[in-house]
Amino acid sequence: MAGSDSSPTVTCCASGVKAPQSWNLPQDTVHNRGMETTIERTEQTQTFTAADRCDACGAAAQVRANLISGELLFCGHHARQFQEKLVQQAVSLDDPQGLLK
Prior knowledge:
The protein is an alpha+beta fold. The protein has a domain at 55-100. The protein has helices spanning 76-81, 83-89; strands spanning 9-11, 18-20, 30-33, 36-39, 63-67, 70-74, 92-94. The protein has a three-stranded antiparallel beta sheet. The N and C termini lie far apart (49 Å). Residues 48-98 form the DUF7455 domain. InterPro entries: DUF7455. This is DUF7455 domain-containing protein. It comes from Winkia neuii BV029A5.
């Protein structure tokens, strides 16, 4: 078929969203239970350097959000501003100072 992708996909039970298996989502962090999907977030310990800057304003980064599409870095101010969305959408959050607790 023209325009169709025949690569294997994983379907989220709750939303019906399909993700290519090539994304290699960690199987231990994504659980489908009937119509409920839960994601467990684990703490990571990656050190921030002076070169790590907030993607919103350029200040020193203090929180790393790992998303399916890539990584975003935030200063404390912007991490708190976007906290609700980060917690909902991040695959993992690196918050060594506990700013989002």
